[in-house]
Records
---
Amino acid sequence: MWSNRAARTRSFSVTPEGRDTQVAWIGTEPEPPYQRDDFLTMLYSGWLAGRATLLGLLDAREARLRAQTRQVRGDMARLMAQHPAEIKDPADWRFCRYVLQTRRMMLAQTELLWCQSMIERLKDSDDG
């Protein structure tokens, strides 16, 4: 069962037939990951716009990543406080949620470090 935090919370559950289908699917070869990120496309084309535009893009991305890490950190803290045993049990869905949140946090932190290094690189570079 899963719920989102939107004003209109929706709950989902899996039917027995759906569970069987999902369990069979879990063991198959996943599709290669696909990532489309307009930010990266804009950054790649940034040489056309100049350093100030690139810094603006990176500053905005950094702010979004900071907000994301705050949210994920809060989600993980709630899981740890409310379900300390369940997040250690691979047979419980909260374990899976917790490890995916851990991955999400690590990816966001890595990208945040990358943005900070790019900002420093741009600040230290010449315009010309």
---
Amino acid sequence: MGKQVPLIFAVFFLTLPGRAAEAETKPQNLGLMREVVDLHFSAQPGFQATDLIHRRDVEEIAADLISVGLLAEPPQELTKRVPADDSFLRQQFAGQNGQRFMRKVGAVQGGYAELEKLGTGPQGRGAARTLQAAKGGHELIEYLATTPHGKQLSRQMSRVTGAKSRPGAIYTKQDLLAALAELISQ
């Protein structure tokens, strides 16, 4: 009998005017949001899911989400979480060779964050350029981002060099989808 009380309360709560419709539309809203994001990136020739996204992507997608009624205003806090167009990641890794390297880094969970952190230290930019030029250079980023010893080494290097990470940064389409889903679900 004790389990029926919460169930009855939930049914009652969802049948209040507007509650049932709200409960039903959240999955629809997330589906529509995903469609808008997918449509945006599918229009970019050669775009791959692990590619580094631009702030203008977030701005354009936000405008589309506003036009379909999923957002009331542009999400400035999300836009700030995407690397700026003049950021280290963009400047150093433009071009075909940079793009190849970045796609390898982007395929690693936490790879962009680790590379960006490396680039914030005074000597890190040079080290990152060296990694880009070296055969298998992306493997060091993978080691730092995914292994226990690599993560420990990354923390130690950060303390010595002053390199900083940006918690909650948005680097890829998947990162953006997760951030938008959280925003729309609120």
